[in-house]
Structure formats: C-alpha cells, structure tokens
Specification:
Blueprint (H helix, E strand, L loop, with lengths): L2 H6 L4 E3 L10 H10 L4 E4 L5 E4 L4 H18 L5 E4 L5 E2 L5 E2 L3 E5 H5 L3 H5 L8 E5 L6 H13 L4 E6 L4 E5 L6 E4 L3 E3 L8 E3 L1 H4 L1
Parallel strand pairs: 8-9
Antiparallel strand pairs: 1-3, 2-3, 4-7, 5-6, 7-8, 9-10, 10-11, 12-13
Length: 202
C-alpha cells in the first residue's frame, strides 16, 4: 500500500444522536471530552459528535509553524487572546468547534466569567484558521468556515497545503480564493499580521 493510500484511510467518525437519546448539555459534553483526552472531538449544531483522527507529522509541523508565527505577532499586538487547536468554543448555534488557530478580542474575552473560561468558552472567535489535513474533506471545511461566519467570526482562513491555496472568509463578502500565495495579510481584523506561507506549503 502506498503512503498516499495509507493517509486516505484516516477518516473522521460521526456519531448521530437521535431519539430517544437526548442531546448532551454543554457541561456534559465538556466532561465527556475531558474524560477522553486522547480524542479530538467536535459537536455539530444538531448535536452529532465528530471524532477526528490524529494529525500526521506534516500537518502537525504546519500547524506548529502557523501557531508560532501568530504567537510572535501577538507579542506586539495585545488587543486580543490567541488559542491553539486544543481549544473548543460553543458557538451561538450550539455547535462546538475547535479551530486550528483562533483569536478573540479582549473585550469579548474579558466579558466571560471565570467559569465560562474554564470550560468551552460560549462564543465564536473573531478570527479562525483551519488547516486542511489529508483526512479532511475540503467541502466539509468550507461548510465549517461558513458556520464560523454565520456565528460572528470577522475573518476566517481555510489553508489548503495539499493544493497550496487559501480561501479567505469575511462577513457579507464573497469568498476570496488565492492560489499558492507567498504571504497573506490579516488586516484590518489582525492589524499588521502577515503569515508567511512558504513553510506551510513545504
């Protein structure tokens, strides 16, 4: 079996919760995730659970570089809080999502109680980035990006290193497609942040 075929068998598992089972409460879902730390789990707005396969080495390397570059920018711009892929958020539509990278403005983060910060924060980040891995469906990721916008995100980047392109999402605007760009700017949502994509494409 080729390496490509080996990657292709890594698929996400969706658990459908229908009657008579009831939707897990936000707290029960958080507790379920804490009890299974080895799993990467999201929840759809309908209450279905999505168990995602662990990332491979290349995806982990790219995600680390993405987070590293963003962290350097955060040291110079302190008007918000950054989060890595291990952080889940409860969106206004009831879904729980864990973007590969996200950022929340200080005033929105500060408005949460300490208890809300210690579980999955009940808000949609202002900025989200998703990095496609070989096991990810591009159409599913596009739907997820639109969900972020519908729930309040001001900027979203869908980064596809497999085809070396970027999809940029902003409220009330058509999706911008860029083929193999060298950099991408976060202005005006992320003033001064420019992501160097050269190592992402490697």
């Amino acid at each position: 079996m080729s390496a490509t075929n080996t990657l292709d068998i890594e698929k996400n598992l969706t658990l459908h919760f229908g009657k008579p089972m009831q939707r897990l409460s936000d707290q029960d879902f958080f507790d379920f995730c804490q009890a299974n730390p080895e799993l990467r789990i999201e929840r759809t707005s309908e209450g279905d659970l999505i168990i995602m396969s662990p990332t491979g080495g290349n995806t982990g390397r790219r995600n680390f570089n993405l987070t590293y570059q963003f962290g350097l920018w955060l040291e110079t711009f302190s008007e918000g809080v950054g989060f890595d892929s291990s952080t889940g958020f409860i969106l206004p539509n009831g879904a729980e999502r864990a973007p590969d990278l996200s950022w929340v403005r200080n005033e929105r983060w500060d408005a949460l109680t300490e208890a809300e910060r210690n579980v999955f924060p009940p808000l949609c980040p202002d900025f989200v980035a998703e990095l496609r891995s070989p096991s990810d469906s591009l159409s599913t990721l596009k739907d997820k990006m639109q969900e972020y916008l519908d729930n309040g995100a001001q900027l979203g980047w869908l980064i596809d290193p497999l085809d070396k392109n970027i999809y940029i999402y902003q409220p009330h605007e058509a999706v911008i497609y860029s083929d193999e760009p060298e950099t991408i700017s976060g202005d005006p949502t992320l003033p001064g942040f420019v992501l160097n994509l050269q190592k992402i494409w490697q």
